[in-house]
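Lab notebook, bench 4. The sequencing result for the construct came back, and we need a structural model before the next group meeting so we can plan mutations. Quick request posted to the team channel:

Model the 3D structure of this chain.
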Amino acid sequence: MPITTEKYDQLKIDKLKHLLTELAAKEQARPFEIFVDGLKVVPKTEDVKEFENYEYYINEDSEKIRILIYYSLTSPRNDQYVYYIQRGKIEKPLNGFGELDGIIQEKLEARDREHEARQTKQELEETKKQLEEAEQYAELLEKQLEQANSNKHKLGKLDLVELGSLVLERMAAKNVGALEKIGLGSIVAPPVTDAVMEPVAASFEKQGQPPIPEQRHIELLQQLESVFDNDQLAIVMQVIGKFAEEPTHLQTVASLLNIDIKKETT
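Done. Here's the predicted structure in token form:
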């Protein structure tokens, strides 16, 4: 049965308690008992909560603390740790507390260090959680920004860029003479000759009708052309573009034009 004898050190006593706590958590609890001088102040037990009860029995006259850690409840074998507060009787200072003041102070400092360590660990965990939440929020904002950029030129399911190109193409085709006068006639596709029309028609018959979105845009463009001239149509496209950038203006314009939105949408 090994015996360890040292000068009183609160940190080493706390380490013994930590060892017993760890063993109990692993279901390997070891019984212990504690003596202050010749008095058994903590009877043999496996309950680590009883460990610090010895502190109530320490005073300025205490000489040593003896801690026995057994291998099992039935075995007498044990490891013994003896910590001397004072060896023999020494002259007491005038304040009557001797080394007890130092012991108490050392224990308080040890507990303060333990508390600071727990608090630091908790703060690190909270900071880590906040960082993870910030990263998730940044990813969400990035996705929303990408989606907003992809829909910047769309009004509902209508692609304004595509519709705008159709408008420009039709306007250029109608004004090919004016464009040629200023040297821009090459931007208009040349007229299709009769010789080329037959294979195109045959190819068209095989392929069927144009894709539905493109056909819908052409029909919409035809409706606009039937109402507006070229200058007005250009203005209409600019207005639609502004609505795509700021959809909230739709409500304002509808109110100015006395449009009953509920009635129109039913």
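The radius of gyration is 45 Å.
Will bring this to the meeting.
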